[in-house]
Amino acid sequence: MNPKTIRESRTIQATLVLPTITNNHGTIFGGAMMAKMDEVAAIAASRHSRKSVVTASLDSIDFLSPAKMGHSVCIEAFVTSTGKTSMEVFVKVISENLITGERKLTATSFMTFVALDEHGNPTPVPPVIPETDEEKDLFHTAEQRKAMRKDRRLNSEKVNSQIDLTKTI
Question: What is the CA radius of gyration of the chain?
Fold first, then answer.
């Protein structure tokens, strides 16, 4: 399978922060931001793999500054590294006051997607070729994040195995 450049998966979506997705503080709901980030990241993963994809994990979302009603948010995502069937996708959100032009880094996240074949089974994905300094930095630190994900998954499995499914809330 031929490697692909990271730029081939780069996906950018701009949208307005409208009243329907804001909270009582006049800023975008965290859940609305998460949904938009997941959508753009999924498009980037599909562009890379040219397959259907599913979200496998979300490392975390760091909300760094609020996106206010009337501002725009620009969500950028691209595949930073791959496994056999999985892809790590970096997502960043930049909000912009469209009147003043002030831009702020609003959120960042790493998400993992798995490519699926026509039967819904995991299928191989091409490796990536980083080109820019940012891409190279993210590519070279991907193994550390993968190890942290593995540790987190093992800890979650321990906790999950102790959950009593017979009790109701």
Answer: 18
Report d(CA 110, CA 78) in Å as an integer.
10
No. of H helices and E strands in the chain? 3, 7
State pLDDT tens for residues 121-143.
999 999 999 999 999 999 999 99
Q: How far apart are CA 15 and CA 9, in angstroms?
A: 20
Residue 150 and residue 134: Cα distance in Å, rounded? 24
CA distance 75 to 111: 14
- Among the listed residues 47, 40, 163, the one whose alpha carbon sits nearest the alpha carbon of residue 111: 40
For the question of whether the overall pTM of this predicted structure is more than 0.70, the answer is yes
Query: Which domains occur in the chain, in start order?
Result: 4-161 (3.10.129.10)
- Angle of helix 142-161 relative to helix 133-140, nearest 10 degrees, comes to 40
Query: Could you give the CA distance from residue 14 to residue 94 in angstroms, rounded to a whole number?
Result: 9
